[in-house]
Amino acid sequence: MTALVLAGTIACMLSACGQSSIDYGGGDGDFETESVSSESESAASSAESGSETAADSDSESAESTPVTMEGKKVGIALPSKEQTRWLKDAAALTERFQAKGARAEIQFADDNADSQAAQIRSMIAAKVDLLVITPVDSNALTDVLAEAKAAGIPVINYDRLIEKTGDIGCFVTFDNYQIGEMQAEYVIDQLGIDESTGDKFHVEFFSGDENDRNSYYLFRGAYDEFIDAIHAKTVIVSSGDTTLTATDTTDWSQDAAEQRMKKILKTYYADSTKLDAVICADDQIALGVMKALDADYNGGDVIVTGQDADDANLAKIVDGKQSMTVFKAFGNEAAAAAEAGSWLVNGKTPDESLVEDADWSFDCAYDDETYNNGTVTVPSLILTPVSVTAKNIQKELVDTGYYTMEGDYPVSVN
Ligand code: GAL
Questions:
Q1: Are 7 and 414 within 8 A, CB to CB?
Q2: pLDDT (tens digit per residue) in 294-322
Q3: Is the N or C terminus of the chain more exposed, i.e. has fewer CB atoms within 10 Å?
Q4: pTM of the model
């Protein structure tokens, strides 16, 4: 199955059939081992390429993907289909686990923490060999993970840290603080804030859902870059919203972001105060903010940041409406999760040597000091994000095999 066909299959399963789960196997809902076609392996390999070309990485990732999970069942719990990135993660995770001989079932929780807990419980009841979980609410899974542990099922925590539990085998994510820094550095650089003598700049912050630890790192990474300029009153946040809670966007919702932006524009920028930049934690939020700006702001260009390199936002970047986004190579994240998962399923504890042995073509650091979830410091695999503007779309997104150009616009392959 090619990546495009797989993407089409997923789109059909999600939109036409309206299901909240994807079973990539025989169609009866039971886990069955499926043989992996070389085409689907190579689609996964292409997506894993990181900074290399897809062709370069094919042979390399075939070597680094030994079949170590033959016949194993993997239950994957993802937060929602609203953010299109989770659909890409679903496809990439499935491919990477299939390449190891395992069989994956994906469930999406419609951003509902109770539904997600129920979905995970049903995976435990189905006796999966491994759980891969991105939480809707980071604080809501303590009991469920205790049940997984009692059932002897190891857990990969994917992308968003799960809080208050010691029952995580490995956390796999990108450096979210660095993503916030990248967004802020872009704005600071474009506006020339560091070189400014006497100019004032107006910036607003739109964070992700505060129940997601990533939102904290993103906000801190961005805000810390601005702190000195805010104290010096070179940068002014007219809304006064300078905390994660004040800038929170529930469920990372586009609509919520649009409404908050409209309110801020009406209250603080209707008097011709120039809004210079809006730091948006992700691309859905950026879409909501841009809608509000289009409708209610006539004060000139506003720099808008984002994260995830969603197709809709890349089109906005090409059209000059959004300024930048941050790409997190989901194929690499999925590859790291599958590798750590295969260690856990085979009774091995992921450590530094996992990264050494995997010898990936992309950057990945083992970190057992940073990610304390309130109960333990979770052993983590941390990947490196890429800042994307109109200038490097070709190099970072198209040449790496993740996107293809359709006319003037990049479109996701996976
Ligand atoms: C975050 C994730 C982002 C973004 C967001 C919305 O946790 O790291 O990439 O997708 O959730 O779902």
A1: yes
A2: 999 999 999 999 999 999 999 999 999 99
A3: N
A4: 0.86
